[in-house]
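Notes from hallway chat w/ T.B., transcribed later so I don't forget. T.B. wanted the structure written out for a chain they're using in a teaching module, and asked if we could keep both sequence and structure tokens in one place. Agreed to drop them here.
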Amino acid sequence: MAALLVAIGAVFGAPLRLIVDRLIHRWSGRPLLWGTLTVNVVGSFVLGWVAAAATGAVASGLGIGFCGAFTTFSTFGFETLHLWESGRRGLAVMNVVLSLVLGLAAVSVGWVIGRN
């Protein structure tokens, strides 16, 4: 049952990531960085909340399935490398710092909200 809920969560997480990423790109006018940062921070918040508030199959479906498909470490890595290699090293470093700081803050806030 847990595997089915993971799959169902992923079915919703992956397309939502694409939609959010495209909306952010359209809004910001930039093809890199902001969409990925947004989904990773939002996904970190959701995962913190789920980890604190849900258990069992629900936690698997939302945490592993939805958040796993919604967030993306590989795109973060690719975009950071692309920025670095294209000479935008300050932006690459900013991407790493923002991703870590905002992601950790978001998961912490989600955890606190989920515990209460």
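Follow-up for T.B.: The two ends are 28 Å apart (CA to CA). Might be a good example for the class.
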